[in-house]
Each structure stands twice: as C-alpha cells, then as structure tokens.
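INFO  loader      accepted 1 record
INFO  loader      residues=347
INFO  predictor   begin
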Amino acid sequence: MPRARLIFVAAVVGALQQPPLRHHKLTPRAAIVAPTDDVGNACALVGAALAGRSLGTRTKVGRALGGPVAAMAITFAASSIGALPANARAVSGIRDAAVQLATPLLLLDADPRALLETSKPYVKAFAVAVVGTLCATAIGARFVLPALASALGRGDAVGSIASLSAKNIGGGVNFCAVAATLRVGAVAQSVALAADNVMALVYFPLCNWLAGDRDPSPDAASGESGDETVAVVDAGSLLAALGTALGILAVASRLSPRAPLPAATLCALGLAAVLPSAKESRNRRRLDRAANVLSETLLYLFFAGAGAAGGAAGACLVDAGPALLAFLGFLYAGHTLVVYGIGARIL
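INFO  predictor   done
INFO  writer      dumping tokens
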C-alpha cells in the first residue's frame, strides 16, 4: 500500500512538472464557394432550387415539406456545414430580387371580377380565420416578444412575428412580402421559416384529420385546365410577364419608395382588373401562364436564398427557436380554436 501511494505521488508530481499543452486553434474550413464568387453562389442557389423542386415532386418527404421548403433545407444544411457561405452578396441580391418580382407576377393572373362573384360563400369563413389569427398573434407576441427580441433584436423579432402571422393568413407569399417590407434580416427569416416548418409537420396533418381528408391526393389538385395547356409559354410571353412585373415595380417604387411591395400589390390587382379576362383573350392566357412559371421559379430561389443563411442562423436558432415555437403554438392553437369553436357556430 505505501508503495502504491508513492507511485501515485510520483505520477502527480511528474504531471505537474510537464510543460503545458499547446492548444492549437482550429480554423473553420473554408466554404466550397467563396462569398465573393457571385457566379458560383448563383449556380449553387439555382442548383438547390432545382433539387428542391425535384424532391418536392418525386418523393414523399419532399411532397410533405413542399418543393420550396425542400430547397431551403438543402441550402440551410450546406451553409450549416460550411459548404456555402452565409453572407454571400449574390445570394442576398437574388433573394431580394426574387421576392420583389414574384409579388406582382403572382397577382397578374388574378381576376378580381370573377373573384368577387365566386368568393362570397368564403368571405365569412375567411374573416373568422383572420380574426383568430390576429387574436392569437396579439396574445402570443405579448408572451414571447421579450425573449425573441433578446435573441434576434427587437426589429427582427417584430418583423418575424408579423411575417409569420401574415403567412398564416395568406401563405408563403405573404411571408415574403411582409418580411421584405419590414426589412427582416436574412438570418431572422431563415430561423422563422425553420421553426414554422417544424410546426407545420404537426399542424397540417391535424387539419387534414379535422377536415376528414385522411389521404389527400396532390396529383388531383395539381391538374391543369385545358386553357392553361393551350397557352404555351415561349420567350415572348416570358419577356412580356417579366417586363410587366418590372413596370409595376417601377411605378410602385415611385408611389411608395419606402414600402414598394404593398403599392405593387395594388398596381398588379388594378392591372389585372382592367385587362381582358383569360377566357376572352388568348394573349392574356399566355401572359398568366408565363407569370405563373416565373413566379414559381422566383419563389424557389427565394426559399433557397433564405436557407443559405443557415451558417449564421445555427447559433441564433438555439436562442430564438424555443420562443418562435412557443409563438407558433399560440398562433396555430388560437387560429384553430376560433375557427372550430366560433366559426362552426356562426357559419
């Protein structure tokens, strides 16, 4: 026993006399594409958008997420592991341009006259749902805004809450438009969309179950009408749609320099109302078809660009994720309770 103690003491003394270990600082691995490589980053973004669309149309997981969200997941993962830069100039430029152009393009095929006639049965249901969303937003924001502001900053926290609320009312396009109007940062957008997609994995199956649609068929909903099939998209129709969208944005920027997207929305709806309807004009059908193709392409690019901030959003997701999930819990729960608790009685 004394010999064992002697060996132990000698080992401790010897360890204390050893020179201190040198800690080598690990340098982060350089991204495959440099932040200054505009062409390379644009190529990566388009490739991710194309891969996301393929996943969204050919795989069960992709169809559950949706093609744009699948594209965002690809770039989020690539940026998180360091394969793509999180602050590339080309990515932010493409993302901002995509949402600016997609907003008027999505509204070009609207027919306000027909909408007023066909939407009357749904106005009450929509109004009840909007009231539920707004009430849930106010309650949820009161509880989570301080924690979210400490993680994202007050401006991005308020913008994220407003964008998620708008998305709950009108879908992903509303999120894009509100986030762009309120100038929500790319990292905050990426974190908010990531949290919303997690919540959607629970919410949308619940909606299908409540509606009695246990086995929805996406193929049936994606069928095209005969008019859309006849309206062939060519270079002329694509240029006409792009030129129209750019013209709307130019006018909107003059009318409202600080918030051009709301003005662009009104301009696009006004133009759609005065143009001949798609049933009356073949050129209108071609314009609408080209606008749909362009807007879908741009939305894929926007979501891919939002996911590219994943490298910078990783640490932020840990801090802001719980608060965002809590807010989304308030949002979806309040929306559902109002629709099924109050709406079912008055509709």
